[in-house]
Amino acid sequence: MPKFATHADPAASGTLRFPAHPIDGLAGTSFKHQHLPSILADDGRDGGFFEVHAENYMGAGGPPHAALTRIREDYPVSLHGVCMSIGGPQPLDKVHLGRFAGLVERYEPALVSEHLAWSTHNTTYYNDLLPLPYTEATLRRVIEHIDEVQEVIHRPLLLENPSTYLLFKDSTMSETAFIREIVQRTGCGLLLDVNNVFVSATNHGFSALDYLSDFPLEHVGEIHLAGHAEQEDDEGDLLLIDSHDGPVADAVWKLFDIVIGRCGRIPTLIEWDSAIPDWPVLKGEAQAAQAILDRHAVLRQERIHARA
Amino acid sequence: MHALEECHAGAAKEFGYPAGFVPGLLDPDRATPALVAGPNGKTADKRYNVYRNNVTVSLIDALATVFPATMRITGEAFFRAMARFHVRETPPTSPLLFEYGRDFPDFIERYDYAQSMPWLADVARIERAWLDAYHAADAATLLPDVLASIPPERLCDVVFEAHPASRIVCSAYPAVTIFSANRASGPVGRIDTTAAESALVTRPMLEVEVRRLSPGADIFLPHLMAVEPLGKAAATASEHCPQFDLATAIGTMLEAGALTAIRHGG
């Protein structure tokens, strides 16, 4: 279990609009509107949760809010920001941060997360999670930004580790050391994207297991799993692309199994954002993750009984 | 914070990575930035190209999502080439991608290869208005009996509040017919009309609706939505368009849910 509170405290707010719906130990999926009729027809409410990209719900009204309200009534929801530009040096966009805080208040999500990346420079929005050098100066700036976000949303943020394709010559710290410092100095939690670890490890020639050993797993409040695509770098070696357009790779499932064995039943999300399949396929991926979460829960129980 | 950065040359260097990183993202002629590398002495050209590709392709995809009928008319290859020019010339300034593409219809109007389709920009304007209506605030629409309850002698002074989703797109071409034929999934037959068609875009509940406005209603409704009294808006419409029919225009706007409330004029 994480040592910090990543979940909304229902008792702290007297005016809940939605049921609390605990998220512990659940597997979930990205919420795509085309799946809504199938999800509602499932009628199971057989657990699970849904994650949405915050920006898609920053319009004033209309079908997006109607769909999210409907899903939030029956399921826990995770609010995932993709363009706060926390990893950029310029000040955070206060209007955008206000919109983000408004969604946190409106939908009472079980989890709230953002990326260690940047996407806006001056006034241009590049619509990608761009990488940053890991230095003392960028560390201080990222910490300031996370402090600011957490003050405005009144709760801890989960910060997601990036997938990257290149390195900065100016970097002076490893990504895991950088992330450890952020966690220590902001009190934020972490969203561990296991596919990102695998993609970056392949692209930069390090061991994914070593990365996980250096990663502060005790602060992970959510896990992401996703599919990736294959390309080549200039030297003809494998370059993996974090494409979110297919099933989770076997190697990523193995890493996930190891992570859950080490840190318990962390809420786990299957991300699938393009070439989106029919609901049963996506649900099947979540069920595979749920099976791993449940197996480790049983193993844990057996260990406790054996000790007794 | 910016002023502080400029004071400290060291810090400015530490924070110069976005300025160094972005120039090549939308400009294929620029070299890979000098500040990046691959691991273990590898080069980073194809690595940097992943970011160039993510940025450019995702923004073209965003335009394709906002303007599906426009793309159906031009074909995908034509559309993506046109969108690529626009993305490079006018990248988004908001992180909300559903706000992107407001300048695209004007770009289409200027785009050399689209000159043979002079109505294409107006179809794109209807599509942009459609998405604005989709995301607009929810509001109850004006019920016909509320208007019917107003004594005839006071009708001239009545002022309305526009529904937040309502948009009007004026066109000198049959833009609504072309839009409707190309937003549907069925085959597009021959479009015979050449008459000018202006669109009324509304979202009374959750479904966006697009209607053809009767002659002069495209003058009347914008005045009405700009909080002009009914009598004055109708007079303006009649003056510019002799065929203007007030009853038809009022019927359309009530049916479409273009208004939310009535206020009696001062």
TrEMBL record, chain A:
Pfam annotation, one family: MbnB_TglH_ChrH
InterPro entries according to UniProt: MbnB/TglH/ChrH (IPR007801), Xyl_isomerase-like_sf (IPR036237)
Family: Belongs to the UPF0276 family.
Protein name per Swiss-Prot or TrEMBL: UPF0276 protein AC244_24570
Originating species: Ensifer adhaerens (Sinorhizobium morelense)
UniProtKB/TrEMBL annotation, chain B:
UniProt-listed Gene3D superfamilies: DUF2063
A Pfam family: DUF2063
InterPro entries attached to this UniProt entry: DUF2063 (IPR018640), DUF2063_N_sf (IPR044922)
Limits of the Putative DNA-binding domain: 24-108
Protein name: Putative DNA-binding domain-containing protein
Record organism: Ensifer adhaerens
